Amino acid sequence: MINIEQHQIEILRNKHAWETKPLLRSIYEAFYRQIAGLMNPDVKGKIVELGSGVGNLKSAIPHAICTDLFPNPWLDAVCSAYAMPFENGSVSHLVLFDVFHHLERPNAFFKEAKRVLIHDGRIIIFEPYISASSRAVYGLLHHEPVAWNARIDFSESAPPDDRYYAAQGNATRLFFRRGKEQWPEGWKVFHRQPFVCFSYLLSGGYSKPAMYPGRMLPMVQTIDSFLSRWPSLFAARCLIGLTPE
Q1: Helix axis angle, 217-227 relative to 22-37, nearest 10°?
Q2: How much is the mean pLDDT over the chain?
Q3: What pLDDT sits at residue 178?
């Protein structure tokens, strides 16, 4: 089960880091530009972020509806990814930033997403990418399991309770290793992009001190861009776009 008190402690810690680490905000601005670049402005409807945490997406997309499992003053709604409080065909975009690997039953989410999305709507997923180098980083330095060989539950019904689940390798397994796992039926994957992200890993993220000063961010991002030619070796993040077939 999810420890609500511990969850809130982590949320407030992340909010403090966001407010006091300009380097972190600059890195996320680049992430949000990538997400916005996959949105289709011709499709009208609600833009909804699931698992919003401290609601940072609003800094780039102010009209986004930010949701999470537990209430906080900066959120617009409280809901699960398996049961959203939106009418059929009312949502143009669903954004999941570091949320997909917490979905114990991804097909149950895709079933609910198809209900709320407009026909030409889109799901945009931003996730860890497991490469030769990032697997060691995520496996050794992050508290959530990579779960590279764990069974994925493809049931279409929601999990029976709100127990904590994490498997950082799921997006890589599902969307970048075709034939090894299962693509979600009834969906077209129109975008798959792994990319190098040492600029983020060395920033310390929300919980650790940065290993380089903010003025060096452009140089580190240039290195990221160069090393992204070899994603299987160096990539640590990925961006995925899906639309209903």
Answers
A1: 40
A2: 92
A3: 65
- The type of residue at 234 is F
Q: What is the rounded distance in angstroms from the CA atom of residue 155 to the CA atom of residue 136?
A: 30
Q: Alpha-carbon distance 236 to 201, whole Å?
A: 8
In this structure, what CATH number is given to the domain that contains residue 106?
3.40.50.150
Cβ contacts of 92 within 8 Å, gap of 6 or more = 39, 40, 43, 44, 45, 46, 47, 117, 118, 121, 122
Which secondary structure element, helix H or strand E, spans residue 36, and what is its range?
Answer: helix 22-37
DSSP assigned state of 139: H
pLDDT at 38 over 80: yes
Provide the domain limits for residue 203: 4-244
The residue type at 74: W
- For residues 116-141, average pLDDT: 92
Q: Which two tokens stand for residue 51?
A: 């698992």
Number of domain units in the chain: 1
